[in-house]
TrEMBL record:
Main location: membrane
Localisation: Cell membrane
Family per similarity comment: Belongs to the BioY family.
Organism of derivation: Gardnerella pickettii JCP7719
GO cellular component: plasma membrane
Sequence intervals crossing the membrane: 45-64, 70-86, 93-110, 116-138, 159-180, 192-224
Transmembrane recorded as keyword: yes
Keywords, comma-separated and alphabetical: Cell membrane, Membrane, Transmembrane, Transmembrane helix, Transport
PANTHER family per the UniProt record, alphabetical: BIOTIN TRANSPORTER BIOY
Name the UniProt record assigns to this protein: Biotin transporter
Length: 228
């Protein structure tokens, strides 16, 4: 009888140990999953923060009639909006603005610090936040329509996806223009229509950049879907 009790007690101890080990393993796995779930979106957003900064520091092309130069920023913003969720895309721009305000020369013309937010480009900087959010949201909505209406892997669907991405990029550019023109008008004490006319040089370049970003993201759609 005593031997049986000892045997039962040993079995209980082993069972409890295995149960606790399993629970601990599950807890560790759960924590690792939570960390990964937070780290991956942050890494994606930060990557585009770096790319936006690099696109600005790569150089700027001045346009006669406006103090705001042409840069590759809108190309990277379109790529961010088309590949990230709207929260991730907005986070990437906010981090870009934060490091610029902190003193890194990542704004157009090598400018940095809070002084840059008192210049004629302030409207465009603010517009980046809302523009990239618009790109991501419009892209998500239009992509849902395309996926629901057309069969998978058809040639027509690939062109439709490109069209959806291009439309989203154009909408984002228009949002950026709206904020940029109003901000520049307030800073320079000029009517918005005059700012818009002087800024027509942006249009062709931004259409080309929207087309490039849309083509890249539409072409890599399968890879993005597998890694989602």
């Amino acid at each position: 009888m005593i031997q049986q009790r000892k045997t039962i007690r040993k079995k209980d101890i082993v069972a409890n140990f295995e149960s606790n080990s399993g629970a601990n393993s599950n807890a560790v796995a759960s924590k690792a999953f939570d960390i990964n779930r937070l780290a991956v979106p942050f890494a994606k957003a930060f990557l585009f923060t770096v790319l936006i900064s690099a696109a600005t520091m790569a150089g700027a092309l001045p346009i006669p009639g406006t103090p705001v130069p042409v840069t590759l920023q809108t190309l990277v913003l379109a790529l961010a909006g088309l590949t990230l969720t709207w929260r991730q895309a907005v986070s990437s721009v906010l981090m870009y603005l934060a490091i610029g305000a902190a003193g890194m020369p990542v704004f157009a013309g090598g400018k940095s610090g809070v002084v840059a937010f008192a210049g004629p480009s302030v409207g465009f900087l603010v517009g980046f936040v809302f523009g990239v959010a618009a790109i991501a949201l419009v892209k998500s909505a239009l992509e849902g329509v395309v996926n629901a209406a057309m069969p998978e892997d058809s040639v027509a669907k690939k062109f439709a996806r490109f069209g959806a991405y291009f439309a989203a990029s154009v909408v984002g550019s228009l949002v950026i223009y709206a904020f940029g023109f109003v901000g520049q008008s307030l800073m320079m004490h000029l009517p918005v229509w005059a700012i818009a006319v002087a800024s027509t040089g942006f249009i062709v370049g931004d259409i080309i950049k929207a087309a490039i970003a849309s083509a890249v993201c539409a072409g890599l759609y399968g890879a993005f879907k597998r890694n989602a």
